[in-house]
Amino acid sequence: MGNIYHTGVWVSDRNYDVFDRRLGKSMVDREIRIAEPYRRIGSGAMKNNIKMKRLQIGNSVKEIGEEAFQGCSNLRFLTLDGVRTVQRSAFQGCTSLKTLDIPKSLRYIEKNAFMENKAVREIRYETENLSTVISPEVFRECNRLQLIVLPEKLEKVGPRAFYKCKELDGIQFPATLKEIEEEAFYQNGLTELHLPNGLVKISDSAFFKCTQLEYVRIPESVKIIGKWVFHGCNRLKVLEIPGDPEVVGDWIVNRSCTIRCRKGSKIDKYCQENDFLCEYL
């Protein structure tokens, strides 16, 4: 009998479990639901579909392939029930999507998965989501993003994860966070920054050109501060470093910023050697 299409759901009597490009090209509805019998959505399955406005992924689907919905520029509503893995660039360039709820089932989101979603304002990881890593460039250039609720067990924010999210201001880091990689929050709209105790590494240019920041305190747990971490933060008046990091890179702040530290610490020596303004705690 072949495939039967009914209200946006493809059903197969041949026990296929992959929703592929061939099926995707046949989809013309504005509202699409992909569920049983499918377990996986194939690479490029509905790439550049400009008709779809609402997409519901049913509990049976566990994996979404590379570029599966890339360039679906009119997609406004997305439900990811039961999905465990979203591969590279799967939803890149979905420029009408305004909110994104990441369910507790979704543990692995690969590079560029939601990059350039220029209308999204809020991203929320569901309570009990156990993701420990945000992959490189996942939310890069979501330039209207204002709020991100991070997973409770997060340990690492990858390179350029929130690169040029220029309106991002609402963010609270979980206590489990250990590492912020290079350019992770490059040119964000942060006005306040509360880094958690337990953080160990802040990599190169992690907060470069966050021009709204005025004060930052780096926890004593931090052992590595990369180069240019807060460089270009033109309004940053005070950077407080009460600990004694093992590694401190070049030009961590602009000349106009005052670094507060403990007298005789490595940071004190760093300030003297590099002619930075210094105050003692």
From TrEMBL:
Q: What is this protein called?
A: Leucine-rich repeat domain-containing protein
Pfam name, any one: LRR_5
Superkingdom, natural source: Bacteria
SUPFAM superfamilies in UniProt: L domain-like
